[in-house]
Amino acid sequence: MPEQEERKALKLVSRSARQWKAVHMKDEKPCPISFERDYSGVTTAADYADAWLRLGKAVAVMPDRESVCGTYFISDSGCNRIAVFKPVDEEWGQSGRPLSVEPFEGYAEAFLLGECAYKEAAAYLLDHNNNAGVPQTAIVKCIYPIPTSCGVSSGMGAFQVYQDNVGDADDYGPGIFSQENVQRIATFDLRVLNCDRHAGNLLVQETKDAKVRKLIPIDHGYILPDRVVTPPWPAWMQWPQVREPLCPSVKSYIQSVEFSHDNAMLEEELADKIHSGSLRTLRITTHLLKSGVDIGMSLYEIGLLVYSSGTGKSKSVLEKLADEAYAAGLVREQRIESQLDLAALEHSSSAKGKLQPTTEDFIVRYASKLIDRHLQVLQGFGSCISRARSHPNFLRRPSDKPPRKSLLSSSGSSPVSSGRLREYRALRLSSPSHGPGN
Q1: Please, which contacts does 391-395 make with residues 24 or more away whose CB atoms are closer than 8 Å?
Q2: Does the keyword Transferase apply (predicted)?
Q3: Domain-wise residue ranges, the chain
Q4: Where are the beta strands (DSSP E) in 16-71?
């Protein structure tokens, strides 16, 4: 067996993929792991690509469009595409990267060098039961031909089963995609804080219904940033499907998601490749998503707290709340009585050294309380919020009385206390001035 592995041009590295192959194909040594994902497609593609690579007849082609990371379509001798390979050493910022495209301005510090391939693998793991349709992805070690030279390269990278398609979402109007399909992808993007969701990385496939097309989400190297940031406006935020009430299956899926399970799975599969800051981000976004759905918000309404549609560097509500929680965590850990300059949070938390687990937990709990407080205010003032239009429950006050048409009575006076109104305005324009205690 070791001699056979030495001759391999492509070798599975992901423990969960190797375990699946050991159980279902009986040609790998067992690699015990406490969870299971379907890797039938990726193991078959890996074996097929390995055979062609060893014969020296595999073809590696770079896509026509520019990419932040090195990307290769691996094909057989007949140019039939097998998989997409993204090597670690050709990611943005690496010395071997042959590309010039830089990632999103102002976000580079939120992503660490050499982790994009592992984020691709994490995306498939976090897409439970293939809810959003993320293609099967695993980490492999591959010897592949370089199309721009006569040489070959060898390295670790993300290996994803190629998806046949008829274009991407840029080529179609949103009306041909089902509400459930769009909502599942939006749910995934919100949960992993995807910073790179444009129409070009939503592939389109035909279905049995000639009037409906299916979206396949790809390119997930820029999920789970090291700190909560404000991602660019995703393509689906402009589509009507996310303004509608949640499909029952989507709501049920969101309610079933548990960070503790995801954390254990990522720790077991990717070890130190997914850093503590990324896990903190996942905890915070998972809490926002579940809490927002619990009070009847649509995915569009939740997205308004997460994304920015402008070209400037204005922070989202979520980033402001996370910044405040992070600042409080640093103060707590360093025992500094003076107020921390929030501008210092423009730098990645990893640059300041790894935080203690108790501090990480404190930051998440603090951020969660700030999020809950903000959602309570939005729920209480739902009738004056222009975005609260797609779900009747979101417009109801805690008393379950129908919402007033206006916050002002006929006499022009406010039906709510001036103190509560000031609190609402403060929470809308900036993060709360007073957070929860320890």
Answers
A1: 391/245, 391/296, 391/297, 391/298, 391/301, 392/296, 393/295, 393/296, 394/295, 394/296, 394/297, 394/298, 394/301
A2: yes
A3: 1-105+135-162, 223-438
A4: 59-61
User: What pLDDT score does 427 carry?
Assistant: 46
Rounded Cα distance, 38 and 178, in Å: 25
What is the full DSSP assignment across 133-182? -PPPEEEEEEEEE-TTSS-EEEEEEEEEE----S-BGGGS-GGGB-HHHH
Dmax of the chain from CA atoms?
A: 87
Cβ 197 vs Cβ 218: under 8 Å = no
pLDDT of amino acid 121 = 98
Strands (E), 30-161: 59-61, 72-75, 81-87, 137-145, 152-161
The two three-digit tokens of residue 9, written as one number: 């041009």
pTM, two decimals, is 0.81
Q: What is the mean pLDDT of residues 352-377?
A: 88
pLDDT above 60 for 330 = yes
What is the rounded average pLDDT of the residues 41-50?
96
Beta bridge partners of 72: 85
